Amino acid sequence: MKIVVIDGQGGALGKSVIAALRKKRMAEDESCQIFAVGTNSVATAAMLGAGARHGATGENPVLVACADADAIVGPIGIVVANSMFGEITPAMAKAVGESRAKKFLIPVDKCNVAVVGTPALPYSEFVKLAADAVAAFFSA
């Protein structure tokens, strides 16, 4: 199984997601590979520091990683062109949206997108819920 975690800016969300997946022991499973794809090198470094096995930076790595991913995790902005202060290019958003992978999108309000009906939870709780959902997806 290939889990692609995409993040930008400082990579804090991606780092937290990878750490939560590691707590679920997913990173230690040889059949599970966690790929950290940052929109910038700071985000990629943060995610690699959290324990991702592989990492790359930029638009082309997003396109390549999404092509054969089983799961994609990141802020909701990864499916919105020009979000995250322009770090998500239209090609990146399209690659995520068109990927056959199951998408686990975390509702972050910095992307100027509101998911109606989503409770106002602390950031850490959304990360935990995302990790739980990814783990459940692969154990089903």
Characterise the protein shown here.
The protein is globular. Strands 3-2-1-4-5 form a five-stranded parallel sheet, with helices on both faces. α1 (12-23) packs parallel to α2, α1 packs across α5 and α3 (59-67) packs parallel to α4. The protein has a single domain, classed as Rossmann fold (3-Layer(aba) Sandwich), CATH 3.40.50. Helix content is 40%, strand content 19%. It is built from five helices and five strands; from the N terminus they run βαβαβαβαβα. The protein is α/β, with parallel strands linked by helices and 140 residues long. The protein starts with a strand and ends with a helix. The protein has helices at residues 12-23, 41-49, 59-67, 90-98, 123-139; strands spanning 2-7, 33-38, 54-57, 71-75, 102-106.
CATH class division = Alpha Beta
Distance between the termini: 13 Å
Rg is 13 Å
Largest sheet, spatial ordering of strands: 3-2-1-4-5
CATH architecture: 3-Layer(aba) Sandwich
CATH topology: Rossmann fold
Oligomer: single chain
Number of domains: 1
Low-confidence stretches: none
Count every beta strand, where a strand is a DSSP E run of 2 or more residues: 5
Indicate the percent of residues in helices: 40-55%
- Structural class computed from helices and strand pairing: alpha/beta
Quick one: biggest sheet?
5 strands, parallel
Mean pLDDT: 93
Number of helices: 5
Order of H and E elements: EHEHEHEHEH
The proportion of strand residues reads 15-25%
What is the strand and helix layout of this fold?
Layout: E1 2-7, H1 12-23, E2 33-38, H2 41-49, E3 54-57, H3 59-67, E4 71-75, H4 90-98, E5 102-106, H5 123-139
Parallel strand pairs: 1-2, 1-4, 2-3, 4-5
